[in-house]
Design brief:
With 411 residues, the chain is an alpha/beta fold. The chain contains 16 helices and 15 strands. The longest helix is centred in the first third of the chain and has 19 residues. It starts with a strand and ends with a helix.
């Protein structure tokens, strides 16, 4: 089910307690060891930690019956046993990323309920435990869509990485589909390969039973947050987690929105809960090294007995106290919203002038095309702009023509 990789510290003095990292099984483990400048593992061993990294098996159709209990027993629990054998009689710092963090939270709750105290603290990177606000992925989460996906997975035994990759790409179609298409198809340009792009192309599969339990139990019914999720036939409660927690969310995460990630603080009984909000997205925001020039973060620690509204200080990465309260999920920052740039203001004014010349129905269509850049809106905008009824621009060309250009055809 897993391979466990051990990284030895590079310092003469070492920390007595090891670190166990549980990555997501929908991604390869080395996202946290991409390159010397983008490696959590390298940073940890340089600080004197012994690091153990789990590498999940890439399942085939023969593994279709592997479920969440199997991923716990043969994954997290097995890794804890091995770490305990290599570094005996020591507590373990547990780290989970994405769905690996969700699984780690389930494991920590179950182990705490059973009286197992090997996990000293829990660190979660972009990991959800409350799925009541799953973000843009909710577009794919409905009983009908999940039934269709389950039927497909039952037939194939696994969910292929290309299907998952396509779903995630659609969440950021402008960045991951249209811009690359324009650069490669229209301009003939090729982006140079970077470490994160190479990793992203190395996909994995997910077995039918586990993925069905994950989507139905967590995303659709939110069983974990509401205390109904079962491990070995018994419901587990995140309230049983009492160890310190360090949770990281990223500002532009389209997979695990930071407000959703933050909710784990209210579901557990952690003696010390620290939440760090950093810039970037689900992957780039996590793997960026500590000296990345374009990254920033804000952090807040709440200790046992402190109220969510009053406890702890909020500190920016420059060490100064920030006017930002993570507990206030209704706002991202108390700082004034910056004024739009002159070019943005001119663009907005031009859009208003264009749409004000058209009847209401036509104006709304063009506004949608200008705002959302959907190819079907663009085609409709071309028709509304006065072209002959049967006129169509070929699909590839239509993807590259803006509605504002289409309107110029009228003149």
């Amino acid at each position: 089910m897993i391979e466990l990789i051990q990284y030895s510290p590079t310092t003469p003095d070492v920390h007595a307690e090891p670190v166990l990292i549980v990555p997501a099984w929908i991604m390869k483990y080395y996202i946290l060891d991409l390159s010397p400048k983008n490696s959590l593992v390298a940073w940890l061993v340089d600080q004197g930690y012994t690091v153990f990294m789990m590498s999940w098996k890439n399942p085939t159709a023969a593994d279709r019956e592997l479920g969440m209990d199997d991923y716990l027993r043969k994954g997290v629990y097995a890794a804890l046993d091995v770490v305990g054998a290599v570094v005996p009689d020591r507590d373990i710092h547990a780290v989970g990323y994405c769905i690996g963090g969700t699984l780690l939270s389930i494991a920590a709750a179950a182990l705490a309920d059973w009286g197992d105290t090997r996990i000293r603290d829990v660190t979660l990177f972009a990991a959800q435990t409350d799925f009541s606000e799953p973000g843009e992925l909710s577009l794919y989460i409905s009983p009908a869509q999940l039934e269709m996906l389950e039927a497909l997975m039952y037939k194939e035994g696994v969910l292929d990485s290309k299907q998952m990759g396509g779903a995630f790409a659609m969440l950021r179609a402008h960045d991951l589909l249209w811009q690359p298409a324009v650069k490669s198809y229209l301009k003939g340009e090729r982006d140079g390969m970077i470490d994160l792009m190479a990793w992203n192309a190395d996909g994995t599969r997910m077995p039918w039973k586990m993925h069905t339990e994950y989507l139905m139990g967590l995303y659709l019914r939110n069983d974990l947050a509401e205390g109904r999720f079962k491990v070995e036939g018994e419901p587990v409660s995140l309230k049983d987690i009492r160890v310190p927690m360090f949770v990281v969310g990223t500002e532009t995460d389209h997979v695990a929105p930071w407000k959703s990630v933050y909710k784990v603080g209210g579901l557990t009984s952690s003696s010390e809960f620290t939440f760090l909000l950093t810039s970037g997205g689900h992957n780039a925001g996590i793997v960026s090294g500590p000296v990345h020039p374009k990254r920033r973060h804000r952090v807040r620690t709440q200790r046992e007995g402190e109220s969510a509204a009053a406890g702890g200080r909020v500190v920016r990465d420059d060490g100064n106290e920030a006017g930002f309260l993570v507990a206030d999920l209704g706002r991202v920052s108390s700082r004034p919203i910056p004024r739009r740039s002159a070019s943005r203001r001119r663009q907005s004014a031009r859009r208003k002038r264009v749409t004000s010349r058209l009847p209401t129905r036509r104006a709304s269509t063009v506004q949608a095309a200008l705002t959302h850049n959907h190819e079907d809106c663009r085609l409709r905008a071309l028709e509304c702009a006065g072209r002959p009824h049967g006129f169509r621009i070929p699909l590839k060309a239509a993807n590259l023509v803006s509605a504002s250009t289409a309107l110029s055809f009228r003149r």
